[in-house]
Amino acid sequence: MSIIATRGLGKQFPGVLALDELTIDIEPGIVGLVGANGAGKSTLIKILLGLIPPTRGQASVLGLDTARESLKIRELVGYMPENDCLPPDVSATEFIVHIARVSGLPATAARERAADTLRHVGLYEERYRPIGGYSTGMRQRVKLAQALVHDPKLVFLDEPTNGLDPAGRDEMLALIQRIGTQFGISVLVTSHLLGELERVAQHLVIIDGGRLLRSQAVTAFTQASGVLAVEVDDEAAGRDRLGHSLAEAGLRVHPDGRGLLIDIADETTYDLVRDCVADLGLALVRMENRRHRIEEVFSS
Amino acid sequence: MTSVIHDIGYRHYDGPRLGRAYAVRSLFTHNLRAAYGLGRPVKAKIMPFLLFTIMLLPAAISVAITALASSIGSGQSINLIRYSAYAVYLQPLIAIFLAAQSPVLASRDLRFHVTPLYFSRPLSRLDYVLAKYGALTAALFILLGTPITILFIGALATKQKHLGTHALDWAGGLVGCLMFALVLAAIGLVVAAFTPRRGFGVTAVMAVYLISTAAVTSIQGIAESQTKFGVARWAGVFTPFNLVDDVQVWALGAKSSSPEPPPSGLGGPVFTLVCVAVVAGSLAILYQRFRKAGAR
């Protein structure tokens, strides 16, 4: 069953067409929504939450229609906005407990879930201090906690790595991966950086100027390209000997830095490479299928 | 035994989800607490609690004097402050409370963009506005109702004469407090909702109170001196305390505590309608304000 489905979705803001004829179907799991700033990512999320109505078309989330059943949808999903959205004068604990109650959790459950969730996102002693004194990384964690505290079926994370340093980005991506896999909560995560979503998402939706460019599984973007990368010890001499030997055996070989790139003809190519290396008495350091990076697909 | 924190992994929540009415109630409670700085640093508690304490002082002093008087045998029918007059006499304090705390409820969520977190939950924007309005109304009602309740308890404790009349006046006073709270909360929230920065909000609410009071008082003075008593009375509609006081004079039979009683004839009903219009209009404006904010 699709967790998100849109049919001919369009949104016209005064002077800007934010979404144009968008039709997508998304299966459970971690889904990356990629697009440049202004591509329509946040607009799509707001329509899915029922916060703004679409100009054309329709959308459903978890099988519920966004126009008629938005209250029900909002009970079952979590939303982490892109911008800063935290009051500075309360502690993370106080705020997350409050948010849990507004999501319908009874007082005791709200306190337990708030403590659990803050621990899961990695906030410990500092959670008792007012949020105003937090670093950007800690604020992002609180924002994530408020989206998870009511144990939703699906979370919308709008640019969760925005403003984080490289280490913070890695931690946030690892957290998103845990949410999608260990927690069993589906994730729709947006970013304008393809590279980071490639690492965590199972499915990617790429939009540009409000239009759908692609929607497919990450594995489909990165299918083996039919090129084998091989590296042997003994530097250039060994590499060249192997290259000649393979060329004589009828394979197409190109040097690539310290290694070789070999076009894979069929299954026997792997055996041929192995045998040649053994015959020449070389030490095989690396032999791997070269995959396309998603970015190559995007730019081509 | 050593204690070890075990990571027990993620646990799903399968308990009850209490829905929209509970969500609104939670938001109401949170905002009522916020109005008194509860759940916030000490700095946020100072102003509301200081004002609350000062509000109680006249009532406490009045009870003390009454007790002293009855103990030295000066009788049991001393009534220093009328229940219905308390809010009118202490209006500057109430205005300061309103000015200081309205922005906490009205503009804080806007300033720090917290509204998307609420509107992405099972709450409508009207629910949100009503919860805020209800919370500030309740906060003001506590501020106004507590001292007159102390007066009443004082009357009971010192065994005043005519306790039945006391009870009726006190009940009427509470209804009056509720009317003051409803009208003042509406005005305070609307003014503060359009001034995202707290300092501006405080100043704006104070300005509305001071300017309306000063202008109306001078108009009433001039009209009186020219013996245009009708004008003087109708002018009361333009300042919140005179307006509501005139409604309690007309509707509850309270004795007028403001500079001017309500105009005779249609005055009472018109003033009441004005109160209703202020509340309804403010809620409509607030709804529009937060509707726009939530869609961003």
Which residue ranges of chain B are poorly predicted, with pLDDT under 50 across at least 5 consecutive positions?
A: none
Characterize the biggest β-sheet of chain B. none
Helix content of chain A: 25-40%
Amount of beta strand of chain B = under 5%
Which oligomeric state applies?
A: heterodimer
Could you tell me the radius of gyration of chain B in angstroms?
22 Å
Our estimate of the beta-strand percent of chain A is 25-35%
Number of strands of chain A: 14
Report the total helices of chain B: 12
Protein name (chain B): Membrane protein
Transmembrane segments (chain B): 46-68, 80-100, 133-158, 170-194, 200-219, 266-287
Keywords (chain B): Membrane, Transmembrane, Transmembrane helix
Keywords (chain A): ATP-binding, Nucleotide-binding, Transport
How are the SSEs ordered, and which strands pair?
The complex is a heterodimer of chains A (300) and B (296).
Chain A: E1 4-13, E2 16-26, E3 30-34, H1 41-48, E4 56-61, E5 64-65, H2 70-76, E6 77-80, H3 92-102, H4 107-120, H5 136-148, E7 154-157, H6 166-181, E8 186-191, H7 194-200, E9 203-208, E10 211-217, H8 218-221, E11 224-232, H9 235-248, E12 253-256, E13 259-263, H10 268-280, E14 284-291, H11 294-299
Parallel strand pairs in A: 3-8, 3-9, 6-7, 7-8
Antiparallel strand pairs in A: 1-2, 1-4, 4-5, 9-10, 11-13, 11-14, 12-13
Chain B: H1 19-35, H2 42-71, H3 86-89, H4 91-106, H5 108-111, H6 115-119, H7 125-157, H8 163-193, H9 198-225, H10 229-235, H11 240-252, H12 267-295
Helix pairs in contact in B: 1-7, 2-4, 2-7, 4-7, 4-8, 4-9, 7-8, 7-12, 8-9, 8-11, 8-12, 9-10, 11-12
